[in-house]
Amino acid sequence: MEISSEKLHHIIEGAALLGSGGGGNKAAAYALLKYIVETAPSGKVQLLSALDHSFESSAMGCVIADIGANSAQEEKQYEAIATAFNELSLQMQRTIGASLAFVLPIETGPENCMVPFVVAAHYGVPVLDIDGAGRAVPVLPLATFSELPPCPAVIANDKGDFLLLQIDKVADLDSMLRPITGLALFGNSGSLALWPSRIDSLLKYAVRNSLSYAMACGEIIDCLQKGIQIGAGCLSFVNERKACLLGQGIVQSIQNKEEGAFDYSQVVIHDVLSDTTISVLVQNESLILYNSNQPGPMLTAPASIGYLKTDGSAITNAEIKQGDEVFLLAIDAHEALKQPGRLLLFKEQLQEFAYFGELKYQLSVEEGLADLLVRLIHTPV
Fold first, then answer.
1. Helices 77-96 and 110-123, packing angle to 10 deg
2. pTM here?
3. Distance, CA of 129 to CA of 115 (rounded, Å)
4. Going by fewer Cβ within 10 Å, which terminus of the chain is more open, N or C?
5. Residue pLDDT, tens place only, 155-212
6. Domains parsed from the chain with CATH numbers
7. Before 152, cis peptide (omega within 30)?
8. Which helix (H) or strand (E) holds 91?
């Protein structure tokens, strides 16, 4: 289907809620949206369903993403995205004689959901409605596509500089990309094209309908803010994911540091519902949540920790500010992230915070995400 600016706007807002605070920042996402609308014919781009597409099983596509600190943004990020895709496409033509026929996002987050649509606007290739997490993740090995060879891969900046990388293991590739992205030449933000693969291989490991789901979440938020009736089909679709309210309160403090092309932070919130202190630990994405009335974590990845301001707008870790009054939502992880091997990778990632305990990703109380949004935005707690 062809989608225009309104649907892309919905994707950004929905992905900001679903991305566990990461996946880029909303300012960068809206800058990319402006480029997409101005560049695409009639301002529209094509989104293809994972089930309803016309490609042969041998058709080749790739993941396209921005990488680096969550708050970082290059002046002409769209140029970096176009360069990364073009150079990888040329490399595939040189090596196997195949063109890249479609693109897809690496994760669900406001900026990284827009990145493939930049390619769609610039080169006319469609976007496939899948990704590798159903939320945002801090490192490449956490994406479901990590079962596939990631190379060749290209990282580019907005000045036309790029590197072609041939590294077989995704963990090694991620380790190499971080210091590259941290160079002054990249400024903690680069664009990445990787995982060139056949469509049947990508679908095998994908989280399906991820862009449609973000779009539906954004539509519900938009309708609630405007007082417009929400379609029953949209409500039912969004209710397929379960969620719960973790707390509500005012942001007391935010401690930030940028290191290794990551944004690390601790967000401290006074929870008015329980008169306790909530602390969220962030490595681009929100990964661990503590409540002062519990001895250990209240919630960890792969569950998502989403912020919804009390005016109904979704915000990421790049936008949240001291003094904001927010709802904290826990959103259930996609089943693909709950597989034993994937859970082990998340557990190892939390060691970045010197946490060596068990994951706590199961929601203690849950309801449909759409029902929760309606309850919070219409009737504040």
1. 60
2. 0.96
3. 13
4. C
5. 999 999 999 999 999 999 999 998 898 888 888 789 999 999 999 999 999 999 999 9
6. 2-208 (3.40.1610.10), 241-378 (2.40.390.10)
7. yes
8. helix 77-96
